[in-house]
């Protein structure tokens, strides 16, 4: 049975304003950001190539489904196998693939990557290829895309239990707040100011006194909201 790892992707505008054309470029940027889902959906055509690291590596893909904001593809890796024929080893191309499901619907923005080590070392490698490709192809639309693995909040609380009364620093990191199901969990002031000033990475860090530890309780609704909205969590 196939196992999929869940990722979330979020868009952010790339602000490259020329002073003489601020109004025009600003309007274009807002229009593109409003149509970000359609622009991403349009990337899946016969001319698209998935790439990584300045186009040095290219990956073929097969489009299996693209309807109603849900896209299903198979992404192939570039490998080789050694086959021996009549005592003569031959290096042959081998392109194992994995399934990738992109739920590009409004307020969803999730990617499900098949965990298949015979194709890719890990799902993060696939996520890196997707992110690099999306950013490269959306560059002319002044859009950036960040793809991060989702973690269940229970993992956070497991760490809290393991290091109970030992944690002195807690850091939450958030990417550009464009996904309602994420931003609604963050304090309204933080979410608004991050968007207003164009912050791509917003960090909240809490530190205890030198001889103290943080009081992190599971019944604290605010902490739970931060945990659910956070894409990266660091604890010490």
Walkthrough of the structure:
There is one protein chain. This protein has 7 helices and 13 strands. By secondary structure, it is an alpha+beta fold. The protein folds into 2 domains: 4-149, no CATH class; 153-235, no CATH class. Strands 4-5-8-9-1-10 form a 6-stranded antiparallel beta sheet. The chain is globular. Residues 17-21 have low confidence and may be disordered.
Write the layout of secondary structure elements.
Elements: E1 4-13, H1 22-34, H2 36-41, E2 50-52, E3 57-59, E4 61-67, E5 70-76, E6 79-85, E7 88-94, E8 97-103, E9 110-114, H3 123-137, E10 143-149, H4 153-162, E11 169-175, H5 180-183, H6 188-196, E12 201-207, H7 221-229, E13 232-235
Antiparallel strand pairs: 1-9, 1-10, 2-3, 4-5, 5-8, 6-7, 8-9, 11-12, 11-13
Widest sheet, order of strands = 4-5-8-9-1-10
Total of helices: 7
Low-confidence stretches: 17-21
Shape by Cα distribution: globular
Q: Give, in order, the helices and strands.
A: EHHEEEEEEEEHEHEHHEHE
Class by helix and strand content?
Answer: alpha+beta
Query: DSSP strand (E) fraction?
Result: 25-35%
Averaged pLDDT = 83
Could you tell me the number of beta strands? 13
Tell me the Rg in angstroms: 21 Å
N- to C-terminal separation? 37 Å
Q: Specify the biggest β-sheet.
A: 6 strands, antiparallel
How many domains make up the 3D coordinates? 2
Give the fraction of residues assigned to helices: 25-40%
